[in-house]
Design brief:
By secondary structure, the protein is mainly alpha-helical. The protein is built from 30 helices and ten strands.
Length: 682
């Protein structure tokens, strides 16, 4: 848009959008829906880009794509590359290999406007948290750039085919289709895709992240802005009318910013509220009495630096979290805000403005060469760091005994106590087990310890029935989406009971869960009760004991947890600049009182009923003030924040070995072969 067509109120709207995003990322509670600022940007982009293209098409009958994309590169590329360069260098200095590898992948995808796909595909069980992803915010830039790539070509095709008058109807239909896709795939389930395109169905099964990260589900947001171009020349000249429209639009935007939260499915129909609000503001603000709210010097100034502010604010927050000690306080928020605004201003004046000059690249060819070299260097660096385990050579000598530091991204998968063991299956020489291990992933993480000490060490046979995320207690299911948990959980429990019932000598049954976590996602079969408590769980344990008959039952409580990814902590580069970080405190952690409280409830029930033996990992890992995070050989007890590593698994099982051996010795010798009627029914 030329200077003569400059719309100051659009910059004012940009200010609202970027400030809402920044305040949301700073965890300012009042701005729980501040992420909708990105959607406002999409509406603005749809409006401005479509206006530019429509004007050129009406004047020339076509669009000079070379010039269009060159303008986009000049507008977005220099500041983006500067942000990527600074962020990547700083990340190299402070991030552990575990996280730096992912940063390299995000960098290389951001360079080619594909980071939205990277973060979409990365969203799995082993994914790192958002606060450890300094390039996460580039997903929105990638979506914008994908829109810039496709939309001009679409408009040219319509004009070349003589269908210019069908553009608006086609735009409306495309937007409605995009919105419809949000409803169809909101839960990630599609019977059509499952039946005919199983691979696609599997990719899309995480409906919430699919909707959030992919362009097809955002088309209607750009479409609202684009459609506005056809109406912007047909304004009602009454300022009082435009005033009302503007205030209504501001109300919609404010409602979304203040009332939405992260738990909502988004964009979905929810995005219509801020997007329509933004469209109404763009339509009316220029001719309203209240336009000063958006066209004042402060609002416009913030709008002008909004792009650089968006680019820099998030990496600063990520580094602050990574090098800090917890949640942001008011002082942190103010300092981050000041630093972000300062860098944004510098970037706008020294990078954005000079590179936007009409003849900048042609008059200064050296800068063109430097731009290309930086582009290729960043891409190659990202690819190399991603493919070589996060440049593990940067890590100093750790304070703990860590094997294979270079295999940074695979530590949890390789050293988790259940890695390499089946979800269901025998370990040993016989299919008739002496020990049956049940539970979720917090049950399966004892597999290494049981196999090492009892199978390999004493020739007992082990059957594993854990790791499905089910609550392996009679009458329980899960309430989360994704699977037919009623069927899966009942079948998995019955699979374990069948093996128990096969034995002539009753096996020792060991069950462990992330008990406290299961309370948040488990329910009762047929009732789908989500608010289950200690009483429900204790009753479930007693029903399990009834189902296994004479088989001794050992219940293992919650592990204390590390609270941090210890592998990450102890493989950070040394020294970590700009920070007095000391890894020594991470050799232990503070006991989690909620986990301990639940364990005590299980202990009291065990003592009062005598139906099962209760084992509290706190007894072996903790004293009154702290819990150990390493074993006697300084090896990590946890593979991530809360799952036991192979070393932790061996440590706990070795500690409770006498309890298990006593249970094994007390088993009746002639149990018989009980009827299979002990199976749990739905």
């Amino acid at each position: 848009m030329t200077k003569n067509n400059y719309l100051p109120h659009v910059d004012g709207l940009r200010a609202i959008a970027v400030l809402s995003v920044v305040l949301f990322h700073l965890n300012v509670s009042a701005f729980s829906g501040g992420y909708v600022g990105v959607d406002i940007f999409f509406v603005i982009s749809g409006f401005l880009i479509t206006g530019i293209l429509k004007k050129e098409l009406e004047q020339t009958g076509s669009v000079n794509l070379t010039k269009f994309y060159r303008r986009r590169i000049k507008r977005l590329g220099p500041a983006l590359l500067a942000t990527l360069l600074v962020t990547f260098i700083f990340s190299m200095l402070v991030f552990s290999p575990y996280h730096f590898q992912r940063i390299g992948g995000a960098l290389s995808s951001s360079i080619f406007s594909a980071s939205n796909f990277f973060f979409w595909l990365e969203a799995d069980y082993f994914d790192t948290s958002a606060n450890l992803k300094p390039f996460l915010h580039t997903w929105s830039l990638s979506i914008e750039e994908q829109f810039y790539l496709l939309w001009p070509i679409s408009l040219i095709i319509f004009y070349k085919l003589g269908l210019r008058f069908f553009i608006l109807p086609a735009l409306v239909i495309a937007s409605m289709a995009s919105l419809a896709l949000n409803f169809i795939l909101a839960d990630g389930q599609s019977s059509f895709l499952t039946k005919y395109f199983a691979g696609a169905a599997e990719l899309l099964e995480d409906g919430k992240s699919t909707l959030f990260f992919l362009l097809p589900f955002r088309v209607f947001e750009f479409g609202i802005g684009a459609a506005l171009v056809w109406f912007s020349g047909k304004k009602i000249p009454w300022k009082i009318f435009n005033d009302a429209v503007m205030w209504f639009g501001l109300g919609l935007v404010a409602y979304a910013i203040l009332m939405f939260d992260e738990k909502m499915i988004f964009p979905y129909w929810h995005a219509l509220i801020p997007c329509l609000g933004a469209a109404l503001i763009i339509y009316s603000a220029e001719d309203s009495y209240s336009s000063i709210l958006l066209t004042n010097r402060i609002a416009v100034s913030i709008g002008l630096i909004s792009y650089s502010l968006y680019l820099f604010h998030w990496p600063i927050i990520v580094f602050w979290h990574y090098l800090g000690d917890g949640d942001l306080n008011f002082r942190d928020q103010m300092l981050i805000g000041l630093l972000a605004f300062s860098l944004a201003f510098i970037s706008y004046r020294l990078i954005e403005q000079p590179f936007r000059q009409k003849n900048f690249f042609t008059s200064k060819p050296a800068w063109s060469v430097a731009f290309v070299v930086l582009f290729l260097t960043l891409f190659a660096s990202g690819i190399h760091s991603y493919s070589t385990d996060g440049w593990a050579w940067r890590a100093g000598e750790p304070m703990v005994n860590i094997d294979e530091v270079g295999d940074a991204s695979q530590f949890h998968k390789a050293y988790y106590g259940g890695s390499g063991y089946p979800y269901y299956g025998p370990i040993g020489n016989s299919k008739v087990p002496d020990i049956v291990l049940m539970g979720d992933s917090h049950g399966r993480h004892y597999a290494e310890g049981l196999n090492t000490i009892f199978v390999e060490g004493k020739s007992y046979d082990l059957f594993i029935a854990s790791g499905t995320s089910c609550f392996h207690l009679p009458g329980f299911t899960r309430t989360t989406k994704g699977y037919d948990w009623d069927q899966l959980c009942v079948n998995s429990l019955n699979e374990a009971l069948r093996f128990i019932n096969k034995a002539q000598i009753p096996p020792v049954v060991i069950i462990s869960h992330s008990w406290s976590s299961q309370m948040q996602r488990a329910g009762l079969i047929n009732k789908k009760q989500t608010k289950i408590g200690e009483t429900h769980i204790i009753n479930g344990i007693l029903r399990l004991k009834e189902a296994i008959g004479e088989s001794p039952l050992i219940v293992i409580g919650n592990v204390p947890t590390a609270g941090e990814n210890l592998y990450d902590i102890f493989t950070r580069p040394r020294p970590i600049i700009f920070n007095n970080f000391d890894p020594a405190p991470y050799l232990s952690s503070t006991p989690n009182s909620n986990l301990e409280r639940f364990n005590n409830a299980l202990r009291l029930n065990s003592e009062s009923t005598g139906e099962y033996n209760f084992v509290d990992p706190f007894d072996y890992l903790c004293n009154s003030t702290s819990c150990r995070n390493t074993d006697d050989d300084m090896r990590l007890i946890y593979s991530d924040k809360d799952h036991l590593s192979k070393y932790g698994s061996i440590y706990i099982i070795k500690a409770i070995q006498p309890i298990i051996e006593k249970a094994l010795a007390k088993r009746p010798k002639n149990w018989g072969n009980p009827a299979i009627s002990n199976e749990v029914k739905k």
